Amino acid sequence: MFGMAFGGPGPLLLLLLAVTVDAVFGDWLDRVLPDPARLAFRFCNAADARLNRIQRGATDRLLRGALVVLVVILLAALAGLAVEWVGGQGRGWLLELLALLCGLRGRAAWTKVRAVRRALEKGGASAGQEAIQGLTRRHVYGLDEHGVARAAVEAAARAFDRKLVAPVFAYALLGVPGMLVWTAMDGADAALGSPGIRHGRFGLTAATLDDALNALPARLAGLLLAVAAPFIGTAKGGGAFRAMARDARKHPSLNMGWPIAAMAGALGLSLGGPHRDGGVVITEAWIGDGRARATSADIGRALALYAVAALILIGLVALLMWGVAGV
């Protein structure tokens, strides 16, 4: 199998070890290991400032944005291939494990959402607005306490998909190159994929490719959250499945509606909805049919759901490894 280290653990055992280590030590690792998504984000921001000029034609900006994405993908794929080549040499599997830990940010993302809950409880809306920055594309200073709580619950759903399920899926399917390409595209989409005049053409390739790569992982993330719901007090698995079937396609993103709808349905919340960006009201559909007045306690329930779904994901990796070993 791909990435098999001579005399070392196979790829699925490496994956199981990596997700377990991330679940326990991810906060500390986030401070010491480079984040491929963050590196890609910085590269794309620099390219955006240099290459994306408003006065250029639409086709020119589209081609320049596509070139930036192509460079990001090639660099990530080449880095992944180099890691796998070294991984086949003696104790090189340690480098492959390290690369996996660089790409997995599940625990770190969970901790950032928890910080929003603590900020809301200690400092109210203003503290929550500061803490939620970087976790949402909404204009944070237009959010009240309930808006901050809803944004944090949505951030938990997105992070479960993008920082845990998607990199695990990419590695299981295409090894280290696939995982690094995914994490790099995660950063590229964060930098260039937002809708609007500036990135409508320059960021189109990043947004489209991100949607394609995340199509299956996002749906898997929603399924895992729904399966985890019965283990969380008042959460309801049936509500998660109903919300996904009814509302997932209402979300502006082709993919994010699935984990967000699962989270909303499981917790009995309404997420998304209209919000203000400065003096402009942005109209978005509501996801879920529960309470819109989310609280810090709902963030705690979302974090618990995230944690249980992560444990189920770890169990699935273990089952897959056992199944492959038995063949």
Automatic annotation (TrEMBL):
Keywords: Cell membrane, Cobalamin biosynthesis, Membrane, Transmembrane, Transmembrane helix. The keyword Membrane applies. Pathway: Cofactor biosynthesis; adenosylcobalamin biosynthesis. Its main location: membrane. GO terms for molecular function: ABC-type vitamin B12 transporter activity; threonine-phosphate decarboxylase activity. GO terms for cellular component: plasma membrane. It is found in: Cell membrane. The keyword Electron transport does not apply. InterPro entries: Cobalamin_biosynth_CobD/CbiB. It comes from the Bacteria. It comes from Azospirillum doebereinerae. Converts cobyric acid to cobinamide by the addition of aminopropanol on the F carboxylic group. It is a multi-pass membrane protein. The chain crosses the membrane at residues 12-29, 62-86, 92-110, 164-185, 220-241, 303-325. This is Cobalamin biosynthesis protein CobD. GO terms for biological process: cobalamin biosynthetic process. Belongs to the CobD/CbiB family.
